[in-house]
Amino acid sequence: MSCISPYKRQKTCTDENPDANKENIPPEDTLSEIAGPPARSTRRVTAVTPRKSIIRRQLSRCESTPVIELGNLQLVTPPTTPAKPAPSAPTDIYTQARALLRTSSATSFTGRQAERTAITDFLTSEDKFCLYVSGTPGTGKTALVNDVLRGLDGKYKSKYLNCMGMNAEDIRASARDTRDEHADDECAMVMVLDELEHLDSATLSPVFAVGTPSFRVIGISNTHTLTSKPTTSTITLHFKPYTSNEMTQIIAKRLEELVLPDGMKAIVAPAALSFACRKVSSQTGDLRACLALVRGAIETAEKEFIKNTLANQGDSVAIVPVSMAHVLAATKTVSSQAPGTVGVVRQLNIQARLVLLSLLLSTRRLSASLPVLSKAAKTPLKSKAKSKAPEALTIDGLFEFYTHLLSSTEAVFSPVSRNEFADLVGLVETLGLLERGPTAGARGKGKAAEKSQSVGIPSTSREEEMVKGLTEPEDPQMEGPAEREIRTMWNRETARIKRETEEKEMVIKKRQDAFEDATEA
């Protein structure tokens, strides 16, 4: 049945009713259906069609279009194809590269497989409960220990303690309390004691004695391997400085996370990266110093890129990769910005600082014509004319003064052994803070000749900068008790040198006056 438009006049047609075509008389079936029963009056009635009702009823008879409620709609889209991440803006690439080369940004440790195996074997050993890890700064000791412990999460619990400035008794008490606190734990406990270079083998013995099969101790020190083991259950592990190849692999591994534009292989040219790593490896082998140098080279390349962009009035400019020229410029920038010798001294560990302190004090005593050891100052001096020239300072003499300095009643630190002292002298010499030379008239070969070598302050280093690095912290609010004690030792010993010099001058003056009086008489 077709729908009737509400805007047209209704027209009906039937074969049974002859009056169906009459315009003013509606059909009987329709009229009876709408108006009800016929009226009794014979008078002709004109009926008015109730148009709204008819339209509503007729529309309801039409076939309606199916309607879907909005709440039941479901939009189905085809699955997206995983796309390759778009490269970042050029300046963002430089920023991300520098962030990846920060010391704390590494998500995993690269290299040191032999050392990793040694640490893992120690944790599963049945008769070794203490591990002494040694090595110069920046060789990855603490980072590797933490990475191994993270990989064994669930099997071991760990606690970290920085022991700088703490004495052996406090360290042992902290380790013992930690052991007793976790005695009932299901998994074993590992305590990491960092910055132990101010303690020697004898002092470490009671500290490492707290180790048990369920409570293992890992000590970390910036000095070289101990000459004697503190306990029979202690093993030692020494970290050698990084080689240039190792540092190159570590930095290249970190930079692999960068998303570079098409056609660009690396943000740092391989030749430039190798050059930077060789430069640092030849000096200290400190990975942190190498990371800082490469970050500076990336910043230099970014400045060149920005300069090129401004010169082209904002047009698209190719990214400038780091070249050897950028590494050289960064080396000069770092050298000019760093406080020179002051910065190097501030980065030394405690025992290395004490060796440098002993060198400065003994050199000052010799310059003042005083004996290296203050106890010899009581020896009477005959006369100024007959006084001997300052003797040369040897490694044995420096070690003797170092031991005397740290064995006094005012000292807080303990001296290391002779072999460890030789390692510390080598470290300070590598950093350009000490130089060796042959002693006049010295004889012997091998170790005997080495002990008789003279030591002194290099001509390329300034003594006042060394003193500043030892006694003036970069941030006074971050100064620790060890730094304060070294400054106290310097002030106390320099005051003693001044007092002994004045006493010596008074003795010489009295003798000169007595000689003049005797001559006049």
UniProtKB/TrEMBL annotation:
It comes from the Eukaryota. Residues 1-43, 438-521 are annotated as: Disordered. Residues 127-243 form the AAA+ ATPase domain. The keyword 4Fe-4S does not apply. Keywords: DNA replication. GO terms for molecular function: DNA replication origin binding. Coiled coil: none annotated. GO terms for cellular component: nucleus. Residues 493-514 have a biased composition (Basic and acidic residues). GO terms for biological process: DNA replication initiation; mitotic DNA replication checkpoint signaling. It comes from Serendipita indica (strain DSM 11827). PANTHER family: CELL DIVISION CONTROL PROTEIN 6 HOMOLOG, CELL DIVISION CONTROL PROTEIN 6-RELATED. This is AAA+ ATPase domain-containing protein.
